[in-house]
Amino acid sequence: MIICIDNILNSEELKLIHSKLTNSEFRDGKETAGWYAKEVKNNLQLPSNELTEEMRSIVMQALQRNRLFQAAVRPKIIRPIIFSRYEPGMYYGYHTDNALMGNEVLTRSDVSLTLFLSSPSSYVGGELMIDTSLGEQVFKLEAGSMIVYPSSTLHQVTTVTEGTRFAAISWVQSIIRDPGEREILFDLETAREALFQKHGITPEFDLICKTHANLLRKWADI
Ligand SMILES: O=C(O)CCC(=O)C(=O)O
Ligand SMILES: [Fe+2]
Q: What is the ipTM of this complex?
């Protein structure tokens, strides 16, 4: 399931993050790439420091409060947010994200996310291209909008040819490991909310709530 979520950040948060990003010193992104992803990774990333932590906490709060993200992804662990920058000539070629991340505590990457931080009209290229069963799909979202997609996919960031592309990226271990089960729960959640909006609490609504809760109980990996 690939989902685009608008307005993860409000304009104030976006402005604040943007001003911090433009005053930060970035490093070669190869430092955090797996051994073979290094071959195709050509971008810049922020090292962990106080400023990065401040921005991470803004993004984490935004993810916590976003109901669509919570329902679609069911996060158990979110890896520390990485802030990346692509200048003209930079790209991240086709790769798949590491299945397991971290050192002492391992996180399984179920879902990858890209939160776009630059206005799409401010740079050329820099699309996120995902290889799906329907073919290659290309995403270049508004600043403040985010895409979540299966970490199991091959994907790439195409070469930026003009301007600067800033983005925040991370990986999530979901409470629901199986993507098919996650989608069923998401559909049920969406349906019961719509039913509630139309008719309020009815016996049918109660039954969907019961089924939703029981499937969550059955499938939750906690
Ligand atoms: O910047 C993006 O949209 C994705 C980056 C990516 O694929 C990665 O860092 O693994
Ligand atoms: Fe990736």
A: 0.99
